Each structure stands twice: as C-alpha cells, then as structure tokens.
C-alpha cells in the first residue's frame, strides 16, 4: 500500500498577515498618491500647497486622536469589525474627493473619512500581529509593512495613469471604489484564530496596564521619539513628487520617485524587522536614524533629478524601518497586556509631528519658493530624535530576543 504524507494545515495566522498587508497596501498607497493631484487642484482652483497640505494635517490629527480609541476597540472586540467600518469610510472619502469645489469640503473629507481609515491601519493591524507572533514579532511586522511599500510602488503609477487617461475626478472615483472593495476583503481575513503553542503563537498577556505604562519614563521618551521622526515620515512622501516636478521632472517620472521610495523601504522593513527581534528596539531605532538624517541632508544639496532618486532610496530604507520598529518596541518595553492602547497613544504623539510637518513644509514653499528650510527643520528634528534614542533606557520588563522559531 502506498504511503501518503500528511500535509500540514495552513497556519491561519498567515491569513491575518495577508489581511494586514492588504490593508496597509490600500490605505498608504492611496495616501502617497494624493500628491499627484496637487498640480490639477492648483490649476483648477488656484489652491496653494499650504492649503493642499493642511487637509492631510487634519487627517493625521484625526488619525492620532482615534488611534488610541482604535487600539482600545481592537483590544476589546478584535480587528475585523473595526477595519471593515474604517476601510469603508476611507475608500468612500477618496471617491468623494472627486466632487470637491470648495476648500472646506477638502478638509471635511480628510477629517471625517480618510483620517478614520488612517487611524486604524497601523494600530489595529500591527497590534494584532504582535499578539499572534511571539518569537518572530519583528519579522512579521516587517512583512506586514511590506504591504505598505508595495502600495507605495504600485498605486501612484496607477493613479498617474488614470489621471492621464481620464481626468483627476474620474481617477479619484475609480480609486475610491477599488479601495472599499479591497479594504472589506482585507477586514474579512482579520479574525484572530485560536493560537497554537506549537507554532510559537499565542497571546502573552503579561506586561504593563495602560495606566502603569504612562507612569514610566521610557513611555514618554518613546512618545517623544515618535514625535521627532513622524514629521519626516509624512512630509517627504507628500511633497517629494511635486519637489521633483519643480526640479524639472514630468509627472510620470516624479511618480516613480514614490515607487523607488517604496522599493527601498521593503529592504528597510524586512531588515529592521529582523534586527529588532535580535538586537532590541533601542538599537534598531538608532540604526534607522542614520540613513534618515543622511537623506534629509542630501535633499538640501541635490538639484539634478537623477540624484534625487538616490537620496529617495536612502530615505525609503529609513522610512520602512521606522514604520516597522515601533510596534515590536512597544511590546518589548510594555508587554501585550494593553498593547493596542499603549501603541495607539504613541502613534498619537507621532501624528502631532506628522500633522504639522506637511503643513509647515507647504507654508515654507509658498513663502520662499523652496523646500530648503523645510529639509533643514526635518533634519534637525531627526537629530534630536537620535539623541533621545541614545538616552532611552533598556527595556524594564526584560523581554528576551530570540531567533524565529
């Protein structure tokens, strides 16, 4: 009689990883594409870059405020319902952008629709991943954030093609409808299965409560670090496309800047995800700051479009690393007992910087006709963040770093 080898069933945790990747792909891919619509909105309505940047600042503020509550809802109810509602609102928001004629409409849509989707895409997906993977938490966080990078690579060229084939209004309607479908499909995959001890999964509820974490020095330092870095992480992706156009690039070539950034960030996400499992969050954060500061300084000196691609690649590596490192670092310092709420509040402080950065950069350009002072300010903030990381104490709950099982 022939022998048949049993095939191991699919680890359902990887369906959660897929759903989280798809959520990141859609929400961040669309956000990165918004900069492609600047020129059309400037031409049709005469709106300044300060105005166009301000509406994203509103979205980031909404993201920061609601991330804390989204984390609490995820801790209590799980990710599926939260992501389904937020995803529907986010996609609807992009479709509604096609109908704007007044500035207040732009702000309302970014605040009430798009900001809600942004509020849940990180805290809900990454907190869920932190609970499902113990030994490979950093690596799996990096894999999920690769979804963000793929969105950065794929969605802006699609948006640019739609604008070229049709017009900006129809392009937004198509993108918004597709986003609703993709985000609902992603949410359907985000039901936490019963974890298997054999597979290295499982929810370890040890660690600080939310109120205990708030009383630690480490918590406030991590919040401050997130504040200093997030201004760069939101400003550069939004303004780099139009900055490339200012240097003489065509819109299609400038859109490829975002694709280059996304491709480089894949290496950053996977590398830093592996490093944080092995060397800890503090050292991984220091590793991320070096290319970030270097790329911001390079933006000050570059005038040739082809050199801008090189600087964007360096920036992209750091960008991907920063978006990967923080959730595992929060788990390392405070455990999983209240990970969603703690991570959500850390994100809130990040979005304070993230909401101000694009607005200030847009205002600087409108006044000076250049992004030079904006790049100087961002490099200064990043340097302050590096100093804070170097002063961050070791984890106070003694998480051991282990190789993936």
Helix content: over 70%
Q: How would you spell out the order of helices and strands?
A: HHHHHHHHHHHHHHH
In total, how many beta strands?
Answer: 0
Q: Return the structural class.
A: mainly alpha
**Can you tell me the CATH topology?**
Growth Hormone, Chain: A
CATH homologous superfamily assignment: MFS general substrate transporter like domains
Envelope shape: globular
How far from one another are the termini? Answer: 35 Å
Walk me through this protein's architecture:
This protein is mainly α and 405 residues long. The chain has a single domain (13-191, 204-391), classed as MFS general substrate transporter like domains (Growth Hormone, Chain: A, Up-down Bundle). 79% of the residues lie in helices and 0% in strands. It is built from 15 helices and no strands. The longest helix has 30 residues, at 217-246. It is globular. Residues 4-8, 195-203 and 398-405 have low confidence and may be disordered.
Question: What is the topological layout?
Answer:
Elements: H1 13-33, H2 38-45, H3 49-77, H4 79-97, H5 103-121, H6 123-132, H7 137-165, H8 168-188, H9 210-214, H10 217-246, H11 251-279, H12 281-301, H13 305-334, H14 339-368, H15 372-391
Helix pairs in contact: 1-6, 1-7, 1-8, 3-4, 3-5, 3-6, 3-14, 4-5, 4-8, 6-7, 6-14, 7-8, 7-11, 7-13, 10-11, 10-13, 10-14, 10-15, 11-12, 11-13, 12-13, 12-15, 14-15
Question: Outline of this structure?
Answer:
The chain has 405 residues and is mainly α. The protein has one domain: MFS general substrate transporter like domains (Growth Hormone, Chain: A, Up-down Bundle). It contains 15 helices and no strands.
